[in-house]
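Our preliminary data section would be incomplete without showing what the modeling component actually yields. Below, a chain of 189 amino acids is followed by its predicted structure, encoded as tokens that our downstream tools consume directly.
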Amino acid sequence: MKERPDEKTIQTIKSAAKKLTGAARREFQAAVTLDHCHGSPRFARELFGWNPDTVRKGLVEREMHCVIIDHQRPGRTTFSEKLPNLQNDIRSLVDPNTCTHPTFDNTFRYTRMTAKAVLEALVKEKGYQKKELPAQSTMRDLLNKMGYRLRRVQKTKPQKKFPKRTRSLQTSQPHMRKVTMTIKHCESR
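Predicted structure:
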């Protein structure tokens, strides 16, 4: 029977296993289990803290000389998977209200439609149910990913209005200076 490895060796093996992922990690764990744990996944769990199912899978892969494919982790499906025509419908609604940057500095398209307006238009014009559509924040992110930015169109931006200076405003100011000067002059006497 083989002796139990010392603590320094155990720590080295653990750190090496942490740096590997997937099939390479399982292959390493199987080799270490055969060398130091008599091929026992339970003893490998006690010694190294490894999941015995993972070690067992690595031993099977080593014996069969093939890699068992990892299963995809379940997750939330994206809206493009749930509603495959959603992006095309969004483009058909938003494109008439877009313009490019006036100097073509970037590839963004600017639109006046907000995420809320796009959601309302999808319900009214395209026949989507409100329940199946994403929230406003998700729609805003989706519009940004599609290259749309919410900004006023440059041509419709109103210019600032400055009041015209009248002649009375221009002449009244020097007159006020003379009055204050004469008051100060009289007070000094």
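The chain has a mean pLDDT of 79. The longest strand covers residues 98-100. Preliminary results of this kind motivate Aim 1 of the renewal.
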